[in-house]
């Protein structure tokens, strides 16, 4: 049996056994490669077969999920989302006040032990959510309270 088919069967078995539920995120391609000791091309072939059978669906740059498409998505937060959430909590607690500078990208890299891309993505998410604004070559600052997202 081809390796891609072994992967397809394993995912279908996990769905049938309830280990994977509708809307749940699958492992990333890299994680599947490591788990199944398969090439990325082989994993992509397995995912293609599962998509064609409407067992899963893929959202570009986000990942693959167990179908159907209308099921609420279930996935663990990514590292940049965890960092952004941690910083947002700090803002809510008052660790960083309006117009106060957040830690620099280098400080975030050191504090969280992450890559530059991850630190950048965390700050971009905070900006997108309305917690912060960035002044190029100066820094990233907390927005005024009236611009914060709705907090419950």
Topology:
Layout: H1 3-16, H2 29-36, H3 40-52, E1 56-59, E2 63-66, H4 79-93, H5 105-112, H6 116-129, E3 132-135, E4 139-142
Antiparallel strand pairs: 1-2, 3-4
Helix pairs in contact: 1-3, 2-3, 4-6, 5-6
Lateral strand order in the biggest sheet: 1-2
- Strand % is 5-15%
Radius of gyration: 20 Å
Strand tally is 4
Given helix and strand content, the structural type is mainly alpha
The percent range for helix content is 40-55%
Protein name: DNA-binding GntR family transcriptional regulator
Keywords: DNA-binding, Transcription, Transcription regulation
GO molecular function, one term: DNA binding
Organism: Nonomuraea thailandensis
What do you see in this structure?
GO terms for molecular function: DNA binding; DNA-binding transcription factor activity. Residues 1-69, 77-145 form the HTH gntR-type domain. It holds the Pfam family GntR. The protein is mainly alpha-helical and 152 residues long. It is built from 6 helices and 4 strands. Helix 1 (3-16) crosses helix 3 and helix 4 (79-93) packs across helix 6 (116-129). The longest helix has 15 residues, at 79-93. It is elongated.
């Amino acid at each position: 049996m081809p390796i891609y088919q072994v992967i397809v069967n394993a995912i279908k078995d996990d769905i049938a056994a309830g280990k994977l539920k509708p809307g749940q995120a699958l492992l990333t391609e890299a994680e599947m490669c490591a788990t199944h000791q398969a090439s990325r091309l082989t994993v992509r072939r397995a995912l293609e077969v599962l998509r064609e059978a409407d067992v899963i669906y893929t959202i570009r740059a986000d990942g693959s999920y167990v179908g159907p498409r209308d099921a609420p998505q279930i996935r663990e937060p990514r590292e940049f989302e965890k960092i952004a959430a941690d910083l947002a909590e700090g803002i809510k607690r008052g660790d960083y006040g309006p117009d106060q500078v957040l830690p620099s990208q280098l400080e975030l890299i050191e504090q969280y032990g992450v890559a530059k891309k991850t630190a950048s993505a965390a700050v971009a998410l905070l900006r997108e959510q309305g917690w912060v604004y960035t002044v190029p070559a100066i820094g990233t600052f907390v927005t005024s309270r009236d611009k914060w997202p709705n907090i419950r």
